[in-house]
Write a structure and sequence with these properties.
With 193 residues, the chain is of the alpha/beta class. The longest helix has 14 residues. It is globular and about 40 Å long.
Length: 193
C-alpha cells in the first residue's frame, strides 16, 4: 500500500450515521474504461469515500483525503465490509502537500480550490487521468448548497487549468444545477487499461 498514514480514531462498524450517496459518481463510472488497473488513485475531498472505494474495486491502490473524520470512519467501515485495501487520510487539503508524479488517477467531486490546480498537475504521472466535477457560479441561481463563491468554478475554469492536456470529455451544465465536468489525461505515455 501507500506510505500515507491512516489517521484518526476508527469506531466499530455500525456506529456512524450517513446522509450521503453511496454509489460512485456517474461520471467516474461512465469513463472507467480509461482507468488503469494498477497504480495509485487519489480521491480529493473524498467525503465518505464512495469514489475512493470505486477506484479500489478497479484495482488501484486508492487513497481518499478529507477533513471530516466522521466521513472517513464511515468510508473505512465500508472498505472493511468489502475487504478492500484503501487508505483514508484526515487532512486539511489547503495545507496538504501532494507528492510529485505519484498518482495514476486523481479524482475530485463536489469541491473546488483553485490553489490545488498546480498540485494536481504535479501529482499526476505522465499519462495519468484526471476526473473532476464540481459546481459553477451558475449553481447559485438554484439556491442549493454550496453557496460560498470561493468553492464555485468560473466558466471554463477547468479548461483553463487543464486545457493543455488531452481532454477526453468536458461539459458545463446550467439546467437544474450549475456543474462542470472534466476528464483529461496528462501528456505522456499512459498505462494500458
Amino acid at each position: 500500500m501507500s506510505s500515507f498514514p491512516n489517521s484518526g480514531t476508527v469506531y466499530p462498524i455500525g456506529e456512524g450515521v450517513r446522509c450521503a450517496p453511496t454509489e460512485p459518481s456517474s461520471l467516474l463510472v461512465r469513463f472507467s474504461r480509461f482507468l488503469p488497473h494498477s497504480g495509485l488513485g487519489l480521491d480529493l475531498a473524498c467525503g465518505y469515500g464512495r469514489n475512493t472505494l470505486y477506484l479500489a474495486r478497479q484495482g488501484l491502490e486508492a487513497i481518499g483525503i478529507d477533513r471530516s473524520l466522521d466521513a472517513l470512519v464511515a468510508g473505512r467501515e465500508d472498505a472493511a465490509r468489502e475487504n478492500l485495501k484503501v487508505s483514508f487520510v484526515q487532512a486539511d487539503l489547503t495545507r496538504f502537500a501532494f507528492p510529485t508524479n505519484a498518482f495514476s488517477v486523481v479524482v475530485c467531486f463536489k469541491y473546488r480550490d483553485r490553489n490545488w490546480y498546480p498540485s494536481i498537475r504535479a501529482a499526476l504521472r505522465p499519462g495519468g487521468l484526471l476526473v473532476y466535477e464540481t459546481y459553477t457560479f451558475e449553481h447559485l441561481g438554484f439556491g442549493l448548497k454550496p453557496l460560498d463563491p470561493a468553492h464555485l468554478l468560473g466558466r471554463n475554469e477547468l479548461l483553463q487549468a487543464f486545457g493543455d492536456w488531452e481532454i477526453l470529455y468536458y461539459r458545463e451544465v446550467w439546467r437544474g444545477r450549475g456543474t462542470a465536468s472534466l476528464v483529461a489525461r496528462k501528456p505522456g505515455p499512459h498505462a494500458e487499461c
